[in-house]
Specification:
alpha/beta, 13 helices, eight-stranded parallel barrel, 389 residues, TIM Barrel, single chain, 11% strand, 11 strands, globular
């Protein structure tokens, strides 16, 4: 049972063109996200540009969103200053938040003992349930599993972790050692399905600004044992995962662009996030167009039909019902039919390739040349292109 819902969006913070907090836009966006399938929202997190918000802006934002929706609103209250995090926790609790999100101290990279003391102080600031946010790529410090396990067992209102540490096996170990009711939420959209497989209850996402219903369908399919269906949905979301952040357009720049394309409030990012790179809006439109294309059912292959070549490529050929007859000595051997290339794990390929798409599959090997009257003089076919490049 997911305490805050199975799909939560880490909501962007809308600003006016002048860079002021747009509370009306935040209210409208929050309501749209809930109607699209989100079962909870996270406000004033990193995607919400919390480093650029004042404490009073964060409290105002939380209060406005809480009034606008009827789902749990988790408030980002994290800081690398424990006193500031405690003050934010108190302010967000007064604003009506249903829970608090606390990130590991960033930049100053505290020890595990320092992290543990920090989270204990933050949890003691209110009675609200606390989600710990583990994202070492941003903070510079992984929260050790042993630290999380102690906190989960000893601090009653530390109830979950938003896991963006990128180690599925370590997440499985955490869930094995933590209390049975301790929850894990995927903090990396692309790892949601693998984390569900080891016991995660949901996702706190970014692409869920525009694919919340698809993400919820994937979670429900996995929970019902329809693993192939969940995997197929996940493949359709790969372009969205890739679009949501990059070195040229870091999160939340692409999401704000996507929301403008969809006609929803967003506004610009505050510095230092910077302006959008050229072509980002075109990519957003391509991602949406691909999501709206009808799904192409994939043919089913029996295990006996799947052959692995030494090169590692995957081909399909019909199972032989009986051994091939041995040709007469005077007749030249008949070359076998060329194998048919089949990529069963690739997403459907549309007729127009969008700018943001999974890497292309290698072309199938060229078929052998037709035998001539003199088999020995027939030219050999050229070797297939290297798929690595």
């Amino acid at each position: 049972m997911a305490l805050f819902g199975r799909v939560l969006t880490a909501m962007v913070t809308p600003f006016t063109e002048g860079g002021e907090l747009d509370l009306e836009g935040a209210t409208q966006l929050a309501q749209q996200l809930v109607s699209a399938g989100n079962e909870g929202l996270v406000v004033a997190g990193t995607t919400g540009e919390s480093p650029t918000l004042t404490h009073s802006e964060q409290a105002e934002l939380v209060a406005a969103v809480v009034k606008a929706v009827d789902v749990p609103v988790v408030a980002g209250a994290g800081s690398n200053d424990t006193r500031a995090a405690v003050e934010l926790s108190e302010a967000c609790a007064q604003a009506g938040a249903a829970g608090l999100l606390h990130v590991a101290g960033y930049y100053n990279r505290p020890s595990q003992a320092g992290l543990e003391a920090h989270f204990r102080h933050c949890a003691a600031a209110s009675d609200l349930p606390v989600i710990i946010y583990d994202i070492p790529v941003r903070t510079g410090r992984k929260i050790a599993t042993e630290t999380l396990v102690r906190l989960a067992h000893e601090v009653p209102n530390i109830v979950a972790v938003k896991d963006a540490a990128g180690s599925v096996d370590e997440t499985a170990r955490l869930l094995d050692l933590a209390p049975d009711d301790f929850e894990v939420y995927s903090g990396d959209d692309s790892l949601t399905l693998p984390l569900l497989a080891v016991g995660a209850v949901g996702v706190i996402g970014v692409a869920t600004h525009w694919v919340a219903s698809e993400m919820l369908n994937m979670i429900e399919a996995h929970a019902s044992g329809r693993v192939s269906e969940a995997a197929a949905i996940n493949r359709r979301l790969i372009d969205s995962y890739r679009f949501e952040s990059s070195d040229e357009a870091p999160n939340p720049v692409p999401t704000k662009c996507m929301l403008r394309v969809m006609g929803l409030p967003a506004g610009p990012c505050r510095l230092p996030m910077g302006p959008e790179p050229e072509g980002l809006e075109h990519q957003a439109r391509q991602v949406l167009a691909a999501l709206n294309e009808p799904e192409t059912p994939e043919p089913h292959l029996e295990t006996s039909e799947i052959l692995f070549e030494p090169s590692g490529s995957l081909f399909a050929s019909p199972p032989a019902s009986s051994p091939a007859p041995i040709p007469a000595a005077s007749a030249p051997p008949t070359p076998p039919a060329p194998p048919v290339s089949y990529p069963p794990h690739a997403p459907p390929v549309s007729s127009s390739a969008p700018p943001v798409s999974p890497p292309g599959l290698a072309s199938p090997p060229a078929p052998p040349a037709s035998p001539s009257s003199s088999p020995r003089s027939a030219p050999l076919p050229p070797p297939p292109p290297d798929s690595v490049g």
